[in-house]
Task: structure prediction
Amino acid sequence: MLPVSDDAPLLQDLMPWSVRPMRVGRGWPMAPEPACLRARWALFTAETDPGARASLLHPTRARGLHTPVTQLPGHRTPTRALAVEDGPCPEPVRIQHGPYDQQWLIPDHRLIDAARPELWRVADGRQVFAIEQPPLPGAAEAPLAFSSLLPDGRSPAGRATLIRPLYRRPAGRDPNLAPGLTDWLADRVGADVTPDALLAWVAAAARPDSRGCAVPLPRSAELWREGVELGRRSLWLHTRGTRCVDPLAERPSGPIRPPGGSRPYVRAALPEAPEADGLGYDARERVLRIGSGLLSPVPEAAWELTAGGVRVLEAWYARRTAVGAPGSLEARRPPAWTRATTSELLELIGVLTLLAELRGEVRDFAGRLAAADGAGAVGAAALRRAGVLPVPVGRRRPALVLEHREEGPDGQFALL
Result:
């Protein structure tokens, strides 16, 4: 771990509003593809015996067949009791599952123990979510992941994460930043500091620290420009080419594709139904094996990249080959390994390859930033003297958002 100034401000002060991870409470409302979710929903609503339907639901203290709930913001789903639900499946939505995976979720509040509606209210085409990863001793992992999709905040290590939206309101309004921070920093670096640019700096400069996630701030315009450009590339990769798009800077709109010589491809056809233990890696040949299928080139750095101490590619594969308990809705899996699954895997390998390369640049930049500490770094003490810190208590709470009419239980109007 590179040294960080004891006075480096913490992310929790620079981006004060945070939300705990979503908790679904049951596995079947989430799957790698939407058709599987519709099939599970059809099985659930076709069951007329109350006891059998309850068993399929997998009830918890937070959710049962008769639990009254409101709609999720932005989703016109039914709010009547699940015990009598017989309508079509709510349209599944794409979400960020953990730091690097993308899954589909049935956006029905009746199925989700802790949905975090405050996040759903601000998820739109401008939003970027910073996902603060819990430190894992001995693991050289980035302290932050980023997503343009609504994140569930899951940590493979099973430890608590925190989700920090860049904006507190829809349409890129009310940045989730310490009041006065961008103006104060702009004076120091002699350049315009936008919320997007500040998040890019965070992506490049954030470091794990015994106090939390620390973010050294620059006073040098040169360091600022370098860090922002580095961070924009990181955000572009994390969000799969949906944010920080700039074709002139070699950041085209997604999907992510590495340069031709390092772009992975299928060398031998993948099996239609891979086994759960069918994944392997050959470091010498730089080949990923799935049964008799082969994909290459896959750099060792991409294979070894971990989140929560778990290899990202192994976790991704396990979620797509796991077999649910007999009789459960989780047992209804996608029928085959599709072309779309292969395309998703190839893109993930490309993202991990480029992120592994970028981390070397981030480490070099961190060394230069540490060397500038004391002469060119800005600490929390300076922010306190300027009145930027401490952050007002109200900035740590969600903003009042009335962008959507949200239906309450059994069709009643929900007051926010």
Remarks:
- The chain has eleven helices and 18 strands.
- The chain has a mean pLDDT of 92.
- The CA atoms of residues 42 and 89 lie 7 Å apart.
